[in-house]
Design a protein that fits this description.
With 244 residues, the protein is of the alpha+beta class. Helix content is 39%, strand content 20%. This is GIY-YIG domain-containing protein.
Length: 244
């Protein structure tokens, strides 16, 4: 498969994300749909890692991360989530490194998998150059590369059953580079009053929260679990995807 999972509106798909990634290790990618920039990350417990992005505390505790600042600036609704790899635990960092090298994501300050930036810490120009030269100079002999390649083939490889290739990179680049020229999707909420038979369409979930005097988490949960039961036995709620 080319892309394991592509979620255009992850903010409404938390339950699907949890189910798809529970008990799995893997590599993920956030794509900013407004400017086409990437962030690559990974997790041994992928569901827990991705769940962080839906928690308020995470944005306060990780405010130094570029991806966090970007999500706060543009809103999570303007990001798509792509699951690039499901991996064995021991292969997770190597697969993250593969995608860092292949996609060169703009939101990743550190280009080495497994490293996290220290708050307030900056490399000197000399240190950055040494790191860059070390990375560029890390080459294997033809024999070693062949042995590594052979070892990754077949059922022994964590990539068995997947065909990530130039096609995958092309697809991701196409999504990112063309997104700014396309209408941006949004979510409308249609509320039918079962007593008066009147329908109100809200421009966003937050507007519906105010109109119904309820909580954001309540409407998210109803959408995620596809709850059809009338809200408060009074309102029938539908979620509509539209293009601005």
């Amino acid at each position: 498969m080319t892309i394991l999972k592509f979620l255009h509106t992850p903010i409404l798909k938390r339950l699907d994300i949890f189910k798809d990634t529970k008990g799995k290790s893997g590599v993920y990618c956030w794509i900013n749909l407004l400017n086409g920039k990437y962030y690559i990350g990974s997790g041994v417990e992928l569901n827990n890692r991705l769940n962080d992005y839906f928690q308020d505390w995470y944005y306060k505790d990780r405010a130094n991360l570029v991806i966090v600042r970007a999500i706060l600036k543009y809103g999570l609704g303007n990001f798509a989530l792509v699951i690039l790899d499901f991996t064995e635990n021991e292969d997770t960092l190597s697969r993250e490194q593969y995608w860092l090298d292949e996609l060169k994501p703009e939101y990743n300050i550190l280009k080495t998998a497994g490293r996290r930036p220290s708050k307030g810490f900056k490399h000197s120009t000399e240190s950055i150059e040494l790191i860059r030269q070390k990375a560029l100079g890390r080459k294997h002999s033809e024999e070693v590369r062949k042995a590594m390649s052979d070892n990754r083939k077949g059922e022994n490889g964590s990539f068995f059953g997947k065909t990530h290739s130039e096609e995958t990179k092309a697809n991701l680049r196409y999504i990112a580079l063309n997104r700014t020229n396309k209408p941006r999707p949004g979510i409308e909420v249609e509320v039918l009053d079962l007593k008066t038979n009147q329908t109100v369409i809200y421009d966003s979930i937050r507007d519906a929260v105010k109109g119904l005097n309820t909580h954001l988490s309540t409407l998210f949960r109803r959408e995620q679990k596809d709850i059809k039961k009338p809200f408060r036995e009074h309102y029938f709620i539908s979620y509509l995807l539209y293009n601005n």
